[in-house]
Amino acid sequence: MAASGKLCTFRLPPLPTIREIIKLFGLRAVKQLSQNFLLDLRLRDKIVRKAGNLTDAYVYEVGPGPGGITRSILNANIAELLVVEKDTRFIPGLQMLSDAAPGRLRIVHGDVLTYRVEKAFPNHVRRRWEDDPPNVHIIGNLPFSVSTPLIIKWLENVSLKNGPFAYGRTKMTLTFQKEVAERLVATTGSKQRSRLSIMAQYLCNVEHLFTIPGKAFVPKPEVDVGVVHFTPLTQPKIQQPFKLVEKVVQNVFQFRRKYCHRGLGMLFPEAQRLENTGKLLQLADIDPTLRPIHLSVMHFKSLCDVYRKMCDEDPQLFTYNFREELTQKRRKGQEKGDDAENCEC
Ligand SMILES: C[S@@+](CC[C@H](N)C(=O)[O-])C[C@H]1O[C@@H](n2cnc3c(N)ncnc32)[C@H](O)[C@@H]1O
Predict the structure, then answer these.
(1) What pTM does this model have?
(2) What sections of the protein cross the membrane (predicted)?
């Protein structure tokens, strides 16, 4: 008789609960590492379920800690799970899980910010960028201090189609502080609209799946947690280098309450600021009195395209940094003052 899908389904054998594991291995949360554990099995299963169909998937879990979400992933009929954990104290507990799921769980003691995942999974899972996403998924409940820099790094990887996106349009399901989750999905005109909204939305389809109340974690963080799902787009909405987009977006949002021309002006040296800002806005066909939160991704596309042309015409423009110019100006002012004090006339 042919084996049915159901008969092949893998389930972990009965194991001590996560609470018991924490006790057994003396895994008190370390405040400096912002460790907050999710003990509610239904919520862990919900995160994994919302990540999509994981049957035969290769999954990369970042920050497994005592292994709660890890268990839910292992029960989702995956092909293989790779976990990267920085804190050595969690390794024996994870090893126990690995023994309970032979050949399915690979444990790396390392740092997600530096771990190179692009060679971790077999070649056959790779898909062309234009095709459907590969059966590779990233899932993680990381400390907030890591998840924001990590998503910026991964968004740059999306733009370069490298790192975890060397496999194709790898999907990600990650937790963030609720306010950050709201910024990631904020639409044009909304009060949470920020640098992160543009950087995420020009490269990915971003969805705030659900919110977990802070009280569901042990120890309880000060804030609620948002679970966010990312699917890289086949075509980025802005087709310019990531660093260039980042520079334009950062400059605009540094004066988020002012008209957008204020932040855009900072892209140009003071001597030609007025003239070049006017040129940029005119060629991009943008109203200078729009506020940053009212700029759509398409507005940013126009701005980045024109700014790129201006950088091509003046190769020094891209490296210009208004803060450096300001520091130099202050230093010169100070030197002048010193000279005047030392003058014997
Ligand atoms: C918020 S806890 C979550 C633990 C577990 N996934 C859960 O949901 O209960 C974050 C975990 O990420 C780990 N971690 C923090 N920074 C990390 C890094 N840079 N690389 C890998 N793991 C990290 C912590 O040690 C901790 O186990």
Answers:
(1) 0.92
(2) none
